[in-house]
Amino acid sequence: MTALLATAALLLTAGCSSDDGGSPGKDDSASPSGTTAPPSPGRTAGETPPAKGSVKVVRTVATGLSTPWGLAPLADGDLLVSSRDEATITRVDGKTGKKTELGEVPGVSPAGEGGLLGIALSPEYASDRMVYAYFTSASDNRVVRMLYDERKPAGEQLGAPDTVFRGIPKGVIHNGGRIAFGPDRMLYVGTGESGDTGLSQDKDSLGGKILRLTPEGEPAPGNPFPDSPVYSYGHRNVQGLAWDREQRLFASEFGQNTWDELNAIAPGDNYGWPEAEGRSDESGFHDPVDQWSTDEASPSGIAYAEGSIWMAGLRGQRLWRIPLKGTEASADPQAFLEGEYGRLRTVAPAGGDKLWLVTSNTDGRGDPKDGDDRILELRVS
């Protein structure tokens, strides 16, 4: 296990104090499992999606969730959901919405935008039953894995966490948190610069990066920088990871005062922060696929389905559709569900033209309604 250490930055920087306009200490803001939706009838890989799409809320799957953050779909249609503040993982029956708590993850230190964040299933989950989690501890952000044993009583089904990777800088803000296994079966980790903007351009720091690791936590073979887990850099706060049918990686990123971003990720590329926010005329920076004002997006999770990236907006309180042709947008982004369900945290593929969508109104920045927070099933095109 590689334990690459970085200094945690605990102080806020000048400018916007948080990623969606709320007060610091109440959270900023993938597909979480790293899987992509299978092709749906009538659409072939590489086909450009239509300029206009649609979203239909099929049903509310579950209600009454507390500070949900990460989502990991199981093969039988059930869902694992992490609670940022309670540091628990809950299994939600995909048909009835019944909730069963697996247990509490020890060592989590919820505060500000930190806590129990992204979760993902091992690429060998069918045989090893391992659940990976990204969380904020008392000293850093880290990735652990735990055995999920369904034979044990509810509340006692999580094994002791095995630390896979540690030393990611923590802060009151910008803790990143999304993890996903890619088509290459490697573990991708989105991190934030913890409020210390200088970390993003420092390739020796783990802050403000996308990391690529083996399931055991070593720098993955083929990474762009020798013996380093760093896959891309110059990020402010990465909270969404997804791959298209051609196995190209996309990531959502919070801007500061001006532009939020959807990026197509190329190994070793520099995405500009803090020198650039959004598109830039400066050479050496990889421009985003598209950009949004921070009050329209403040993006968290993303997923790929039906030829488009679907991006959940927190402050923006809407679901964005970004139709793709290769690694470029093929039409203007389209917004759905604006203001209907409040803050939107996580979106994940549910197979074919279906998506799971998780709201985020109990995180201290939303306006919770009866039943919040909830999981929705969507049909999209």
Structure, explained:
- The chain is mainly beta and about 375 residues long.
- The protein has one domain (about 55-380): 6 Propeller (Neuraminidase), CATH 2.120.10.30.
- It is built from one helix and 25 strands.
- The protein has one helix at about 125-130; strands at about 55-60, 70-75, 80-85, 90, 100-105, 115-120, 130-135, 140-145, 160-170, 180, 185-190, 210-215, 230-235, 240-245, 250-255, 260-265, 290-295, 300-305, 310-315, 320-325, 330, 335, 345-350, 355-360, 375-380.
- The strands form six sheets. Strands 18, 19, 20, 21 and 22 form a five-stranded antiparallel β-sheet that branches.
- The longest helix is centred in the first third of the chain and has 4 residues, at about 125-130.
- It starts with about 55 loop residues before the first strand and ends with a strand.
Instruction: Identify the CATH architecture.
Output: 6 Propeller
Ends distance: 42 Å
Low-pLDDT runs: 1-17, 21-42
Our count of domains comes out at 1
- How much strand? 35-45%
Q: What summary fits the major beta sheet? A: 5 strands, antiparallel
> What is the CATH superfamily?
TolB, C-terminal domain
Sequence of secondary-structure elements: EEEEEEHEEEEEEEEEEEEEEEEEEE
**What is the molecular shape?**
globular
CATH level 1 class label:
Mainly Beta
Oligomer: single chain
By DSSP (H or I, 4+ residues per run), the number of helices equals: 1
Fill in the keyword field for this structure.
381 residues; mainly beta; Neuraminidase; five-stranded antiparallel beta sheet; four-stranded antiparallel beta sheet; 1 helix; 36% strand; disordered N terminus
